[in-house]
Amino acid sequence: MTGTVDTTMPNAAAPRGVLAGSAMLTGSGLSNQLGAAIGALAFDSLGTAGVIAVRQLVSAAILLPVARPRLRSFTWTQWWPALLLGLVLATMNLSLYAAVDRIGLGLAVTLEFLGPLAVALSSSRTRADLLLAAGAAVGVYVLLLPDGSSDLLGYAFGLLAACCWASYILLNRMLGGRLTGLQAPATATLVSSLLTLPITVQLIADGKFLGWPLLLAALSGLLCSVIPYSIDIIALRWVTTRFFGVFMSINPMFAALAGVVVLGQVPVTHEWVGMAMIVGVNAVAVSRGLRGGRSTEETRRDAGGAQ
After folding, report:
1. For residue 241, which of 140, 133, 134 has the smallest C-alpha distance?
2. pTM of the model as a whole
3. How far apart are CA 22 and CA 199, in angstroms?
């Protein structure tokens, strides 16, 4: 792999491209939140850090043989965002699961969504875009109506995960133009699995690297890491980071549904209202994408950023 980058990108203005990207992001969100709920079932046995360590190990074990990244031929312009993405993945997963353990899946993912929302706001260029992001924010607020919780550390973990998710979007977008196929997520998961390797070693030393909890954590790794990482980097070649950021507002709804099915956490009325508002914002975002697609300015800016 040389340092030369093909700046030709798929025509996301075509309805087929927007629909394909939307379908991929929907599948990514469903997989991610179902996997998070399944991983939470192993917290008592492995701990939150232990579940993340297993997840990252599984991700690397699957993605590396499939993608076969040519690490020795990477240039520095390819290495530094891949290394940073690996650090972001490890931090995002650890902070999110720490938040899930303290404040629950739905609230933790709602706070994490502030990251994509920030991306959507920062890259907005029209009043309609700002209204879409604001609509998503209102939906998140309604979903989050105060319930007496005072776990500030849990909120802090959720906000750290939000910062990491924003970085994840931007780095994935960048790497999509610098590395072909699944080389970027494979390299990033290798880095994150190395960062969490001491936790894996400790699990083995404690005799916890076996049994049903390990299988749950491994399945969580497949659903939360392998599938979403692979889908997201492909989807970001079809849609803009702005569209991605708004569309990801559907994740709090998926998290709440996963909480119902897997963890028995049934949302109350205001949470259902908030989820409905968020789905409405996504519907408008998709319809706008079908009508307008990528602007010439966005295409030129994204292509320039991939160089």
Report:
1. 133
2. 0.73
3. 36
Instruction: Report whether 184 contacts 64 (CB < 8 A).
Output: no
Amino acid at 245: G
Q: How far is CA 146 from CA 109, 142, 149, 276, in A?
A: 15, 9, 7, 18
Q: What is the pLDDT of residues 37-79, one digit of tens each?
A: 898 888 888 988 899 999 889 888 888 888 888 888 888 888 8
| pLDDT 10s digits, 265-298 | 777 787 788 778 877 877 777 666 656 544 433 4
174 C-beta neighbours (distance < 10 Å), count: 23
Q: Is the dihedral of CA 260, 266, 267, 269 positive or negative?
A: positive
Question: Can you tell me the distance from the alpha carbon of 98 to that of 121, in angstroms, rounded to the nearest whole number?
Answer: 27
- DSSP secondary structure of 133-180: HHHHHHHHHHHT---S---HHHHHHHHHHHHHHHHHHHHHHHHHTTS-
